[in-house]
């Protein structure tokens, strides 16, 4: 068997460090063309690991993997004569993944499933580091308080106290419970691979009690079954689809007050007896004959028979989830100002199996302009609908997806519209049969924006069925002040500044290099040179101890531009239009902070926006995804509103920056100041925005670790505590995210 050494053994050996010397392929593995690379030929490739087995007790397992796919999970199996221990852990590409493992005495065999899919991969680092129990427990408690919902924000001493209380009640060791809870924070439940498991383990435990349903029985709702264009020859298809839809109404925990079916006279005649049986089973079912052909015309006619304030449209073959009306009633009760309820949804395959869940954000205006993310799971106040349907009938009236999108956009055009009119139902309430082809909505969104007088131009987006909206550039073009803090490190600074100067089509900017006590002769020489050769560059000196917030506030106070750009000194534009896109977006009066799509040098995503609550406080969406991946619901390739974006590349109007008093230099000298700024801007009434059409490299080290000195860690803990105290409720309920998605991983997996 072929043997490999995945990395070089350290020259200075440490006795508590153990690493296998040989990775022996057992199954579904073949050598790739490049040295140390392997091809996984299935979902369960297996290595046997030999040499330097880990010491018994607590160990930190460290792995670095490179792979051409994201969402990779590895599995380690430790075997003794009495037991077999399995450890799963997701891998981050280009980053050392660390996790605690308790190694029992007498390990005789160790195997590794390095990846869980067909791909090409390599391991550059693999070792066990033996830990003292005290150190291991500290790391374990720290992860629980950051990542586990039951221990969130508890002091470490209280985490241990909680575990000991559980142990007494369960007559178990607290260490065993702690390790189980710790292990659960590494489980990544993919929306693709683990959705059925999530349905059985999570969703089904959330159903309402009979008492809950009774409390919501005042919710008066009509379900209008719209069949599209069916002739007498489509009766078999019509009957099959209708039976699925009617069955879903029969299974509701809260029944509708009315269900109305429009049907052609010819089909009605053929199915009269069959429909009569359904009407006996569903007393609220009504059947009306209609000659209307288009979906829009059918909806308009159906509304004339509608008797109740709320309306669900249900397409032939689609199903309402068992608790759809109950959840609609609950959200309507809690949001009395809501006129439209948008629920999560999924799709049905040919066998009726649910897949592809769409866990949506709360109302997201710019995402809605980019794609019809609201889908079919929409419940309307009846008073809104007649006007919407009449307007929509002028377009692609036979396309139900087009019509759904048009109706929601029409809500946004109302003179009295506020975001509170659209409420989100964070439950899967609708199961739909997918359309065979994706429609183009460019003309629909263009018409919508023209009616608003926005002056924007709409074109096809990066994915089918999505749009790019180009907003008008103000005249005269605004001056942008780019703030680049730095200290020495000319090898990092030079390519950043040179790339901005040479690779930016929008030339009306000044670049302020904020020098924080540089002493390197080469750096000082470069600063002098670049300032002399380009009139747009000016070097300002900040002769104080490092404080990121204070340095940038100092730069903003000296900015001449009406737009401020916070730029890290390790940023490099990938194309010339990045600043044009960001200026167009940030110039909109309703927009606050604008962020860009950032990549690591290896081409994986570094920043797809910031999601509040990830990792306990905030994390980067889709981090370590591959360059060409679409992201969850296509969100890596559409413009959208997010609660926060990173200040590694952030634009904001100077008036907005000043309105919220800039960055917090007192409490957030180093970390989280950009998240705090974005939240303050959002609380002031502006929408923050992330765009994939501004792409840059961020040369932040992908293996960069946590704060590694007691002083740095104390500072980080202080800043973390400030953010939790200041914004705790918001950090746990990001409206740009979804409560069914994880707060542990950046991959939009299931919670």
Automatic annotation (TrEMBL):
<protein>
    <submittedName>
        <fullName>Glycosyl transferase, group 2 family protein</fullName>
    </submittedName>
</protein>
<dbReference type="InterPro" id="IPR029044">
    <property type="entry name" value="Nucleotide-diphossugar_trans"/>
</dbReference>
<dbReference type="Pfam" id="PF00535">
    <property type="entry name" value="Glycos_transf_2"/>
</dbReference>
<keyword id="KW-0808">Transferase</keyword>
<dbReference type="InterPro" id="IPR001173">
    <property type="entry name" value="Glyco_trans_2-like"/>
</dbReference>
<dbReference type="GO" id="GO:0016740">
    <property type="term" value="F:transferase activity"/>
</dbReference>
<feature type="domain" description="Glycosyltransferase 2-like">
    <location>
        <begin position="482"/>
        <end position="659"/>
    </location>
</feature>
